[in-house]
Write a structure and sequence with these properties.
With 257 residues, this protein is an alpha+beta fold. It has one domain (39-256): Jelly Rolls (Sandwich). The protein has eight helices and eleven strands. A hairpin with a 2-residue loop joins β2 (96-103) and β3 (106-107).
């Protein structure tokens, strides 16, 4: 058990001044959103608030098998910092690779087609925004940081966890969770968190961002803020990078045939 110790035309991204303005407003917006939370304001949430976790865990082996199949072409999977330059401060050694199925509400059709059972299982997640296989290389560590919006929660499902689980974990505020194969948990990434993989093995999880259950009018505020994020250069640039990496991944696939 987890331990708690034809492509559509592109819209022009919102200018960087809006991104900076939005970051400044988070200190007001996020507390307002949390006041309307239906699941409380915990660092790691009570899993009973999310009935769909059981269905994903029941399918974890099929999801794991698709992740491992993707990892046969590991070098074609982009480091997250190359998809999202804002993450360079979290991983300056390109040890964190991410295979996206959804990104900020945009479906990555080619990758979903490669992982049909994972894609089908994700239909159980209400308010799905982002889903990806998150791969941490041996020795990977993400320094303490906070996420963007309290309007989303984050779910982790262990798929390929090092045997030395004591040295592979995430800290959220004062709670430490050690990933376990086939088990999941939900946390609030706007609270300070960090991760580490102090082992000689790779760590692979399914990472999902989804809408936080909210009461009115907090749900409206969260939705508006999220739609603004989708229009920023932060997301627009990431979508273009994913398109470029699709060509790279396809080359590795053909070489493996």
């Amino acid at each position: 058990m987890s331990q708690t110790t034809t492509a559509a035309p592109r819209k022009k991204p919102v200018n960087s001044w809006f991104v900076r303005f939005g970051k400044r407003q988070r200190k007001w917006i996020n507390p307002y959103i949390k006041r309307h939370s239906k699941v409380g304001d915990a660092a790691v949430f009570d899993r009973s608030n999310f009935e769909w976790i059981d269905a994903l865990e029941a399918n974890w082996e099929a999801i794991r098998d698709e992740a491992l199949a993707v990892l046969k072409n590991r070098e074609g999977i982009p480091p997250l910092a190359q998809i999202s330059p804002d993450h360079k401060g979290l991983d300056d050694q390109n040890k964190w690779r991410s295979f996206f199925l959804w990104g900020y509400g945009f479906r990555v059709d080619q990758n979903c087609a490669r992982c049909p059972q994972t894609t089908a299982a994700l239909k159980n997640v209400p308010g799905l925004r982002t889903a990806m296989f998150s791969i941490h290389a041996p020795g990977m560590a993400i320094p303490p940081h906070k996420g963007v919006t309290a309007g989303m929660c984050v779910f982790h499902l262990g798929l390929k966890v090092p045997k030395d689980t004591a040295n592979c974990a995430i800290r959220v505020e004062n709670e430490i969770v050690h990933w376990q194969d086939g088990e999941g948990f939900v946390f609030d990434d706007t609270k300070q968190h960090e991760t580490w993989n102090r082992t000689d093995d790779e760590r692979v999880i399914l990472l999902v961002q989804f809408d936080r259950p909210l009461r009115f009018p907090g749900n409206v505020v969260a939705s508006l803020f999220f739609q603004a994020i989708r229009r920023t250069s932060f997301v627009g640039n990431a979508r273009r990078q994913l398109g470029d990496w699709e060509d790279t991944f396809r080359k590795f696939e053909k070489a493996d045939e």
